[in-house]
Specification:
heterodimer, A: five-stranded antiparallel beta sheet, about 0% helix, globular, B: mainly beta, four-stranded antiparallel beta sheet, 11 strands
Chain lengths: ~110, ~120
């Protein structure tokens, strides 16, 4: 059974700092991995999708990497802003999606 | 595009009542997913459809839950009878295609239905 772990569970940083969120998974036989953002009381917004054959994807200040063999993905956020405050979830897709519990990020002005 | 549409956004009902949640996927998407999110269990996949056909319903908690997709633009998740432990946020998501062989695409989520069973 696929298990997805996100560390840390919560993170607080000052505005402008670069940061890394981690996602690990136990079964490397995946199709892709997707990072989402969830604001309180809202749905999930897709940030980046990395196919199993890819190593990384970039969108603006976000960069996601994937190391399938070691079962790890990271989401790098550059020059963090208060508007980045949210919960970030990773989902591992392998016939069905398994989500981590998320990292709640707070960026202080 | 309007995105994934879910209704109602909030539902409060009494134990034992039937609850029906509705979802309209993004036009052109042929995969649809129902998820449940709680503080205790996080986000769980309940069931997903490809081309209106249920592919994996192993996440459906018990026989009180049922889901249908009568056409490409509409799906329902029904709970009958409802129980307090069903209280959660239920999300519907859709994608172009879901599966292996490089045919997996991004999932787009609706705003969710917050269900409270008293």
């Amino acid at each position: 059974k696929q298990e997805v772990t996100q560390i840390p569970a919560a993170l607080s940083v000052p505005e402008g700092e670069n940061l890394v969120l981690n996602c690990s998974f136990t079964d490397s036989a995946i199709y892709n991995l997707q990072w989402f953002r969830q604001d309180p009381g809202k749905g999930l917004t897709s940030l980046l999708l990395i196919q199993s054959s890819q190593r990384e994807q970039t969108s603006g200040r976000l960069n996601a990497s994937l190391d399938k063999s070691s079962g790890r993905s990271t989401l790098y956020i550059a020059a963090s802003q208060p508007g980045d405050s949210a919960t970030y979830l990773c989902a591992v897709n392998a016939g069905k999606s398994t989500f981590g519990d998320g990292t709640t990020l707070t960026v202080k002005p | 595009d309007a995105g994934v549409i879910q209704s109602p956004r909030h539902e409060v009902t009494e134990m034992g009542q039937e609850v029906t949640l509705r979802c309209k996927p993004i036009s052109g998407h042929n995969s649809l997913f129902w998820y449940r999110q709680t503080m205790m269990r996080g986000l769980e996949l309940l069931i997903y459809f490809n081309n209106n056909v249920p592919i994996d319903d192993s996440g459906m908690p018990e026989d009180r839950f049922s889901a249908k997709m009568p056409n490409a633009s509409f799906s329902t998740l029904k709970i009958q009878p409802s129980e307090p432990r069903d209280s959660a946020v239920y999300f519907c998501a859709s994608s172009l295609e879901f599966g292996g062989g490089g045919g997996s695409y991004e999932q787009y989520f609706g705003p969710g239905t917050r269900l409270t069973v008293t």
